[in-house]
Specification:
By secondary structure, the chain is an alpha/beta fold. It contains 8 helices and 7 strands; from the N terminus they run H-E-H-E-H-E-H-E-H-H-E-H-E-E-H.
Length: 222
């Protein structure tokens, strides 16, 4: 780790957004400020479309990053990988929650969602490295017509809430533009940087109070 990175305390950052809002790309940009990066992938190649998507994402990530696939064993992966990393990037909780619910249906498990949420949050909170978490904001759309869809929406919404509570930074991606939702005052660093190592004007397009967007926020996110 660089001397500058060593002076930063570990932090938790939650990046939320809708589909194709730029959340994954932006989270990777945040992670690129660290030297030792571990990418925890929760997706599974269940069909041709998903396998192509996974392959494309792998090509887009820096070759020096370590990638761990943890579709179900997320808490274990966070704890083990944070010991040898400067930052752990989890992409994403959206797919992880779906994996958990699918596993429960197959095993006919009646385990409480709260237990799963608490376990994930505890692993993130006690991680030895900084943690960046990507998740979808699913509460702004129409009410799902099926019971299973509503259960999924509620599960993920509760997961997002609990992670946001322990996060130092919560960023909402809107059409590729990062909007700061939460920033812990204790985590602010010198020179106007956050503990993720990214200048505030990269996180808040209107942080200068002028109503004009910073030039850095003009970059298009995928």
């Amino acid at each position: 780790m660089s001397p500058e990175a060593e002076t930063r305390k570990k932090s938790v950052t939650l990046v939320l957004g809708g589909a194709q809002s730029g959340k994954s790309y932006y989270a990777q940009k945040l992670a690129s400020h660290f030297e030792r990066v571990t990418f925890i992938a929760t997706a599974r190649g269940t069909d041709t479309e998903m396998r192509k998507k996974i392959a494309r994402h792998r090509r887009e990530r820096p070759s020096g990053w370590r990638t761990i696939e943890a579709p179900l064993e997320l808490t274990k992966a966070i704890r083990s990988e944070s010991r040898e990393s400067d930052v752990v990037l989890i992409d994403c909780l959206t797919v992880y929650v779906d994996n958990v619910m699918s596993m429960r249906r197959k095993s006919q498990s009646k385990s409480d969602s709260k237990e799963c949420i608490d376990a994930v949050c505890d692993a993130i909170r006690t991680a030895e490295a900084s943690v960046i978490v990507v998740s979808n904001e699913v509460g702004s759309g129409v009410v799902p017509p099926y019971r299973s869809g509503r259960a999924y929406r509620d599960f993920l919404g509760q997961m997002n809430q609990k992670v946001a509570q322990i996060a130092d930074h919560v960023i909402l991606m809107v059409a590729g533009v990062p909007m700061m939702v939460k920033e812990s005052g204790a985590s602010q660093q010198k020179r106007g940087e956050t503990s993720t190592g990214v200048a505030k004007d990269e996180l808040m397009p209107f942080a200068n109070g002028s109503g004009k967007r910073h030039s850095r926020s003009r970059e298009a996110f995928k």
